[in-house]
Specification:
Blueprint: E1 2-7, H1 9-13, H2 20-35, E2 41-47, E3 54-56, H3 68-95, H4 99-106, H5 114-138, E4 154-157, H6 167-175, E5 179-184, H7 188-191, H8 198-214, E6 217-220, H9 223-235, E7 245-247, H10 266-274, E8 277-281, H11 290-302, E9 308-312, H12 320-327, E10 336-339, H13 344-353, E11 356-359, H14 368-375, E12 380-383, H15 386-392, E13 397-399, H16 404-416, H17 431-452
Parallel strand pairs: 1-2, 1-4, 4-5, 5-6, 6-7, 8-9, 8-11, 9-10, 11-12, 12-13
Antiparallel strand pairs: 2-3
Length: about 450
């Protein structure tokens, strides 16, 4: 039986995460374990970190049991130290108004300066030491034996392993006759670098450029992303053959969550029950446009419209000012709420008890919350972008992110309408169907692109 090795390098080291790409990886793996054997494939998980391929146990992509108080304390300390470091640098740059000094302490990690020195000569060595220590505990002597890679096997780059120096391991798979395929989520760090951490934009571009030399076939998560990759590759002088690129769609369901808390916390139930709540599910980062939503609700609150705004998503990059605006907002804890530790059960509850879903992103690769919101029967209000039109079609209401009034009026119209604004009957593919679609595309690329090779 041929094997599909799935790269889980990042998720295996950040198993506590349950948003974005990590959520997709986990859902796809769960379903491929069930359906791949029917198609003649055996699924195996792997990590390619530091250029060395090692096989992972099935449970390596799930969080270990932790003391909730201890984890909460660790997260709070990390957040405090990040803010302290950020504001200390700003303070010193204001104290010493000399441009070369300010440039040195405020420069991003990919330019020479304080961040570059600390990241490359302190943070990275420490992370490497910790990772090696954890790897020693994670892998038995048997699992350290080189993996049984055979001609006809497939390596699927499914995870967000951009920082992890995977290419030497990828080349080893190729030398042994395996086909290398990559799932591409978006090209946003390349097409919209100003929305990303500066170092991520730099590393991601290098990662994609390296992939053009080493990956046999690509499977994007939408037609829009597929077109973006074709255009970028063409600009780099690389022609991706038709049989070597395709797309699939992500799934949406909340069944069989393996995450954490069996009960929804009381405070979440209370805030969703006391007044109409408008929900935004996404990582807190600039392109997600949370500031726009705050502007909209500031206007509505000033007009006396009594609504909740609920943000759910982990903190990303370049959001220090936004986080400060949220945490110091006069409505925080009253009509403005933010959770970064929601599990599947609580996310399902939030979808089920909200008035509508808001999605104001400037750019996306797919926009999974749109699908999840529609599946739960929520009215979905989204920014008017090509990918949202591709995914949401006629069921989504689109607003202009250049105008605060555009969304504010939509919300007022929903509030003034009589009866329940929810709708029934919308169906999107489940994660099982999504994984079946992905497997068909894997097989298609293996046949068509492999024949070209």
């Amino acid at each position: 039986m041929k094997k599909i090795y799935i790269d889980c390098s990042y998720l295996s080291e950040h198993a506590h995460l349950n948003t974005g790409i990590q959520r997709v990886v986990r859902k796809v793996v769960e379903n491929l374990y069930e359906i791949a054997p029917e198609r003649g494939y055996e699924i195996r998980l792997s990590t390619l970190r530091d250029g060395y391929a090692r096989e992972l146990a099935k449970d390596a992509i799930y969080p270990k049991e932790e003391n909730p108080l201890r984890e909460s304390w660790k997260a709070s300390l990390k957040e405090y130290l990040k803010n302290l470091y950020y504001h200390t640098r700003l303070w010193f740059s204001a104290l010493i108004p000399w441009e070369p000094f300010a440039r040195f302490i405020l420069s991003p990690r990919n330019s020479f300066g304080l961040n570059y020195i600390l990241y490359n000569y302190l943070y990275k060595p420490l992370v490497s030491i910790v990772a090696k220590k954890e790897a020693g505990a994670l892998f038995s002597e048997k699992e350290r034996v080189p993996m049984e890679i055979e001609k006809g096997d497939i390596l699927l780059l499914l995870d967000s392993s951009w920082y992890m120096n995977i290419w030497p391991a990828v080349e080893e798979f190729a030398r042994k006759g395996a086909m290398v395929q990559m799932v591409l989520y978006d090209l946003i760090p390349i097409t919209h670098p100003h929305f990303c951490d500066d170092f991520l934009a730099h590393v991601f571009r290098e990662w994609i450029d390296d992939s053009l030399e080493r990956v046999d076939g690509y499977i994007a998560i939408s037609k829009t992303v597929m077109a973006s990759l074709k255009e970028y590759a063409c600009d780099k002088g690389v022609d991706i053959e038709e049989g070597c690129i395709d797309y699939f769609y992500l799934g949406a369901d909340f069944k069989d969550s393996l995450f954490g808390k069996a009960e929804v916390r009381k405070e979440l139930q209370r805030l969703l029950g006391e007044r109409d709540t408008y929900l935004c599910v996404s990582t807190i980062e600039p392109r997600k446009n949370h500031a726009y939503l705050l502007d909209v609700f500031d206007r509505l609150w000033r007009k006396g419209v009594d609504l909740n705004l609920l943000f759910i998503g982990r903190r990303g990059w370049k959001v220090e000012e936004l986080i400060e605006r949220i945490t110091t907002h006069p409505e925080k804890g009253k009509r403005l709420f933010y959770y970064d530790d929601i599990d599947d059960a609580e996310l399902d509850y939030a979808y089920s008890h909200s008035k509508a879903l808001l999605f104001a992103s400037v750019v996306e690769g797919f926009g999974l919350p749109l699908i999840e919101g529609m599946v739960k029967g929520l009215p979905v209000l989204a920014s008017d972008t090509p990918i949202h039109r591709e995914v949401g079609g006629e069921r989504v209401r689109y607003f202009d992110i250049a105008s605060v009034e555009s969304l504010a009026k939509m919300i007022e119209d929903i509030q003034s309408a009589e009866g329940d604004s929810r709708s029934e009957g919308y169906e999107w593919m489940s994660w099982r169907s999504s994984s079946e679609m992905l497997l068909r595309k894997i097989q298609k690329l293996s046949s068509e692109c492999g024949a070209q090779g």
